[in-house]
Design brief:
By secondary structure, the protein is α+β, with helices and mostly antiparallel strands. The chain folds into two domains: 1-32, no CATH class; 38-122, GHMP Kinase, N-terminal domain (Ribosomal Protein S5, domain 2, 2-Layer Sandwich), CATH 3.30.230.70. The protein contains two helices and eight strands. The strands form three sheets. The protein has a four-stranded antiparallel β-sheet with strand order 6-5-7-8. A two-stranded antiparallel ribbon has the order 1-4. The two termini are 26 Å apart. 10% of the residues are buried.
């Protein structure tokens, strides 16, 4: 999940020239990714006593009466909201679902950040 940009140099003399350095010559630069969005799908069923299912399996999707997909980040910035199916949802239910998705996004963001820091610490970068 950690991506690196190859180090490069651009020369502006008489003509512009671009040189991409080999990783053995110059360490690649880490790609900064901020506000990573996470996607969640909720399945709704015709029976109102059954709560929505987060990230349903294929069988649960086929048995559901509708799906709601949300892509957002831990900063509560909504990227995508898509509702599929015929189950009508009141605005309060949608807002509860968004709050659940935000909490999960924060948890996943914490896990992803910890793994990225762990990966970065395990890499040996030599500066010449």
């Amino acid at each position: 999940m950690l991506f690196f940009l190859p180090s490069s140099t651009t020369f502006y003399a008489y003509e512009s020239a671009f040189s991409q350095h080999d990783p053995s010559e110059r360490a690649p630069l880490p790609l900064a990714i901020h506000h990573t969005p996470f996607c969640f799908t909720f399945a709704f069923f015709p029976d109102p006593t059954i709560p929505p299912v987060l990230d349903p399996s294929q069988l649960e999707q086929r048995l559901s009466a509708g799906l709601l997909s949300i892509a957002l980040n831990a900063q509560r910035e909504l990227c995508v909201l898509q509702k599929l199916g015929g189950v009508p949802l009141p605005m309060d239910d949608i807002m509860k679902i968004v709050d659940i998705a935000v909490q999960r996004a924060k948890e996943l963001n914490t896990i992803a950040d910890a793994r990225l820091k762990q990966d970065w610490a395990s890499r040996k970068v030599e500066v010449r």
